[in-house]
């Protein structure tokens, strides 16, 4: 539980399902607390607070503006539909509220630039809501990839994040409405795939992006399934697939000249509730055994313990940055905006390649 005297006070704009997860994370983060929540109506916000047992001290507002006008709110979490991000993130920054913005962060990089410019102009911290990068497992995997003796030179990455929520979702969810979340599966699940690929290459942008033929769009032109390849000048390449039409899959494979790293649960560890996450790593082939027909060595399973789940760790890290900015110990950390922007640039390129009839897009 947080120390109420030093905790960063959060306001939440909207009562989306993901808000439930953040409410729980805020209740457990040692340096943050939920101070206010707002919705389009007071009735909806009040019902949300009651249903999820929010503390009575949490202020409930019948508008998003009400949260921003609350002078005691230090930071806001914005889980609104992507089409509303630029409006409310800019307004939050103008009120000097630090911004934790759900992914995908914007409909395109031009909108994101407006958000980031507002955050910089008003001296507030920005971070997107990609939780898995905050898990200690992620840092351990990076150590493995950086070990040239074990992993060698990176050659290829593949990421796949799919789920099949059914016909009701495909008809009515905001994620398939062009005016709300017009990026569809590319924004929802493709964001994770792209971020995983960029993470593996230390966020070096590819030279070119080429969407795979056969992307599936709904009647309103929203992507519900697609894939893409990426290529770097040094010969590295990557592929990904994202979809609302396939069985649930959270896979990443990173292949080097000497080793391989694999995850089947990269966006959300299967067993994180038990205090750990796992990943598989294979290296150091025995070529004598290969000559005997034993091609596939058993991978090593690494277990990474954690005291907090990745959503709590994200809130904790963001709140720590906010407190340092408020205390004039540092200016807003620019790493997080840069990572968000690079992810958005690649996402935009995939969408552009689809719209151009699956032509390559140079970056």
UniProtKB/TrEMBL annotation:
<protein>
    <submittedName>
        <fullName>Putative oxidoreductase</fullName>
    </submittedName>
</protein>
<dbReference type="Pfam" id="PF01408">
    <property type="entry name" value="GFO_IDH_MocA"/>
</dbReference>
<comment type="similarity">
    <text>Belongs to the Gfo/Idh/MocA family.</text>
</comment>
<dbReference type="InterPro" id="IPR000683">
    <property type="entry name" value="Gfo/Idh/MocA-like_OxRdtase_N"/>
</dbReference>
<dbReference type="GO" id="GO:0000166">
    <property type="term" value="F:nucleotide binding"/>
</dbReference>
<feature type="domain" description="GFO/IDH/MocA-like oxidoreductase">
    <location>
        <begin position="145"/>
        <end position="261"/>
    </location>
</feature>
<feature type="domain" description="Gfo/Idh/MocA-like oxidoreductase N-terminal">
    <location>
        <begin position="8"/>
        <end position="127"/>
    </location>
</feature>
<dbReference type="InterPro" id="IPR055170">
    <property type="entry name" value="GFO_IDH_MocA-like_dom"/>
</dbReference>
<dbReference type="Pfam" id="PF22725">
    <property type="entry name" value="GFO_IDH_MocA_C3"/>
</dbReference>
<dbReference type="InterPro" id="IPR036291">
    <property type="entry name" value="NAD(P)-bd_dom_sf"/>
</dbReference>
């Amino acid at each position: 539980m947080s120390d109420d005297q030093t905790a960063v006070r959060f306001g939440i704009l909207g009562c989306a399902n993901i808000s439930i997860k953040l409410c729980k994370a805020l209740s457990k983060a040692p340096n943050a607390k939920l101070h206010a929540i707002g919705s389009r109506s007071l009735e909806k916000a009040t019902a949300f607070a009651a249903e999820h047992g929010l503390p009575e001290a949490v202020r409930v507002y019948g508008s998003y503006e009400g949260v921003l006008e609350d002078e005691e709110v230090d930071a806001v979490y914005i889980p609104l539909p992507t089409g509303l991000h630029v409006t409310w993130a800019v307004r939050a920054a103008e009120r000097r509220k630090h911004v934790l913005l759900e992914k995908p962060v914007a409909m395109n990089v031009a909108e994101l630039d407006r958000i980031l410019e507002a955050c910089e102009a008003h001296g507030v911290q920005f971070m997107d809501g990609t939780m898995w990068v905050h898990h200690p497992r992620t840092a351990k995997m990076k150590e493995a990839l950086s070990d040239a003796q074990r992993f060698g030179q990176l050659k290829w990455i593949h990421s796949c994040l799919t789920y099949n929520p059914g016909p009701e979702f495909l008809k009515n969810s905001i994620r398939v409405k062009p005016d709300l979340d017009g990026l569809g599966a590319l924004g929802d699940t493709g964001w994770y795939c792209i971020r995983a690929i960029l993470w593996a290459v230390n966020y070096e942008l590819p030279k070119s992006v080429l969407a795979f033929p056969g992307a599936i769009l709904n009647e309103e032109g929203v992507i519900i399934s697609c894939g893409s390849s990426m290529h770097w000048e040094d010969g590295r390449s990557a592929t990904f697939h994202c979809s609302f039409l396939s069985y649930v899959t959270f896979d990443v494979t990173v292949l080097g000249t000497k080793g391989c790293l694999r995850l089947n649960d990269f966006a959300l560890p299967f067993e994180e509730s038990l205090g750990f996450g796992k990943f598989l790593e294979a290296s150091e082939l025995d070529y004598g055994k290969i000559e005997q027909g034993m091609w596939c060595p058993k991978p090593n399973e690494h277990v990474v313990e954690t005291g907090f789940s990745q959503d709590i760790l994200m809130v904790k890290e963001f709140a720590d940055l906010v407190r340092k900015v408020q205390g004039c110990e540092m200016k807003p950390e620019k790493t997080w905006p840069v990572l968000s922007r690079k992810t958005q640039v690649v996402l935009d390129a995939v969408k552009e390649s689809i719209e151009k009839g699956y032509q390559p897009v140079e970056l």
